Amino acid sequence: MRMYDLIMKKRNGGALSKEEIYFMIREYTNGAIPDYQMSAMMMAIYFRGMDEEETLHLTMAMAESGDMLDLSQIKGVKVDKHSTGGVGDKTSLALTPMVAACGVKIAKMSGRGLGHTGGTIDKLESFPGFSTDISTRQFISNVNEVGIAIMGQTKELAPADKMLYALRDVTATVDNMSLIASSIMSKKLAAGADAIVLDVKTGSGAFMKKQEDAFALAKEMVSLGKNAGRKTLAVVSDMDQPLGNAIGNVLEVQEAIDTLRGKGPADFTELCMTLGSLMLMAGQVSVTEKEARAQLEQVIRNGSALDKLAEFVKAQGGEENAVYHPELLAKAVYEEPILAPEDGYVQKIICDEAGIASLILGGGRETKDSVIDLSVGIILNKKVGAHVNAGEELAVLYANDKEKLKTAKERLMNAYRIGKEKIEKNNVIIGVVK
Ligand code: URA
């Protein structure tokens, strides 16, 4: 088999066979196929697309390019959750203890933030001592004993995807439905959970700007998961404005803790309840959505979800006391509000701009090696649909550097659009794909 022939076949609109896809992924991973040939193949796929069968073979070939985690030593159904990412997305921090407190096991791999979107691992490291750098054995033991464990992605997990994603990033071939779906699902399948719940974001701050594209991606991933023998469900949710009120690591952790105390922002709480219900339905036998919601409300009311977070933080080396006293977490020195320039309604908060404002403060990474400042960020007091009077606080920035604060303040001000027209609040849940 020759890579040249496969590129030509795809360029001419043909479908690649299972053998051809496995050959291409195996030989690329072991270095026999050079980047320039794989780049040409990615561009051919970008323009010609892949059918359902090809996408499944690509997903499986990438999943099997490294270790497939064996979680059979964990008793019961193991559920994983994945979000396509966005600004202020601290969902895993509140959702996973809620679900684990209801008795469903969470075995999750997470990543760090890059650019203006955050990552769960950075957020969790707001708890002094917390580490996701744990062995697979420790991971399995924590899921069994605590009901929840989160580890960083190992080098051995879907290495073909790691190489291909880096290549796609520099060859303008990221935003193809089959390539995104196979990339995400290869990692999820290799991570070994029995059930996968996906949160596919749509709107100005998401990969998929249009709702119809988000639904198509959700359907494609659900079908890949099911064809690979895993129970898979997806929620399509709004990322046309930041999620919740907090952006920035410690601030997001504090908001997640508020939510576990029943005092979280309405949009964020609703997203956790919807995803949580699906996770319970995937992990428990014949529970209805109504019963699942009631269980989640109960663990918030009786404090066991908050206790579960403390137990999880402690099991991974973190300062559990901070779960009950979030005011102990790192604090920024400066606090500066931005004020509404006129009376009206918040028409829009440009997601990426708000995320970049937090990045400028030091809350995100410009490059993979940047060191982030956990304490800085933004609290949005007014979100889309809110009425404001001139001079009223729209948001507050938290900073440790006056120069950065000045630049971030301008950027955040530009993210807000205020107008006279009354406007409806966005619904955070746009749809569910089962
Ligand atoms: N996230 C991934 O892991 N892969 C993609 O291709 C896009 C987003």
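^ uracil complex. The chain has three domains: 3-49, 78-324, 331-419. The pocket of uracil is lined by residues 165, 174, 179-180, 183-184 (CB under 6 Å).
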